[in-house]
Amino acid sequence: MKKLKIGLAASAGGHLNELLPLKDSWTDYGHFFVSDNRVNAMELSKKEKVHFVIVPRRNPFKLLLNMFQALKIYLKEKPQIVITTGADVAVPFCLIAKLFGAKVVFIESFAQIYKPSLSGKIMYRFADKFYIQWEENKKFFPKGIFKGRVF
Amino acid sequence: MPILNIFVSMGTHPKPFLRLLNEIKRLSQKDKNLSFFIQSGSTPLEGLKGMSFMSKRKYDDEIKKADLVIAHCGAGIIMNAFDFKKPLILVPRLKKFDEHSNDHQKELAVKFSEEKTSLMVLDINDLEKAIKESLKLKGNFKPTKDLLAKDIRGFIEKIESEA
Asked: Which of residues 97-136 of A touch B (CB under 8 A)?
C-alpha cells in the first residue's frame, strides 16, 4: 500500500455513480469514502471504508452539522488528495481538506451540459484539477480539463 | 424472426411516463418478436412485464440480457447502457407532457444522439422505426473512462513524487 492517502467524496446516488468508475486512478492507494447513507453508498460500505455525513440540502443547521462531521473525518484520516464529483454532501469536506493543505480533484457531472452545477461553481475556485465531461462546459469553466467521461 | 429482448427504463422520477408505456403496450401487441422488460418506477405497468424498482443485481442482469435499451434520458441508465455496450434509444421526458419539471432530459438526448452513440425519439410515433434502426448503433460507443482515470492517476503520482 502506498503512503499517500486519498479521500473520495460524493453524494450518494448519481454523484457516487460517476465517481466509482474512476477507481483505477486510486487503486493500491489507501483510501476512504465520504458520502451519505442513501442507496448505493450503503451498498458500497459493505466492501469499502465509508464515512457518512448528513445531507445539507440548503438547511443551514444541517450544513453546519455536515461541516463539523467533515472536520472530524478530515482530522481522523488526513488525506493528501481528495477526489470528488460533488455535490452538497461532499463540498464542505473538500473545502476543509483544501484548507488543511490537501489537493482537490473535481469532476463536473456529465448531466451538466449548458449550466454549471452549484458545487462545480464553488469548487472551480478551489480545485487543483477541475475536469469537465462536455467541451461546452468551457464557456463557464474555461480552465476545465476535458479528458472524456466517466463511462 | 429472432426475439428482440428490450429493457425499458423509466427511472425513479415521481411523474409517470404513460406516453412511453402506451407505445410499448401497442408495440408488444403488434409484434410478438419484441420482448419488453420494463423498469417502471412510478408508472403503472398495466399488465406488461417488469418491476417498478429492483435490486442493482437484477437491474444489471436485465440490461445484460437485453439486445436493446429504451430509456427515459436519465444519467444513470445512460451510463449503464454504455457500460454494457447496449444500443440505446433515448426517449426524453418532456415538460410539455408533464413528464418532468423541465426539458433537461431533451438537452442530454440531443447531445448523445448527435454523437451517434444513441438514437433520440421525441415523437413517440417514431419509436417503432427507431427500434429497427437501433441495432446499427452497435460498436459506435467508445468508452473514455480509462483515459480520465489515467489522467487523474497521473496527477496523484505527481503529488506523490512531490511529497
From this structure: 103, 105, 107, 109-111, 113-114, 128-129, 131, 134
What residue has cell string 452497435?
A: B138
User: What are the CA-CA distances from residue A46 to residues A40, A42, A49, A50 (Å)?
Assistant: 10, 7, 8, 9
In angstroms, the separation between the Cα of residue B138 and the nearest Cα of chain A is 16
pTM to 2 decimals?
A: 0.95
Summarised one tens digit per residue, pLDDT across range A28-68 is: 999 999 999 998 999 999 999 999 999 999 899 999 999 99
Bridge-partner residues for B38, per DSSP? Answer: B8, B50
Confidence of residue B163 (pLDDT cuts 50, 70, 90): confident
Burial degree of B49 (CB within 10 A; 0-12, 13-18, 19+) = exposed
Interchain contact A151–B (C-beta under 8 A): yes
Distance from C-alpha of B60 to C-alpha of B25, rounded to nearest angstrom: 23
**Residue B73 DSSP label:** S
ipTM over 0.85: yes
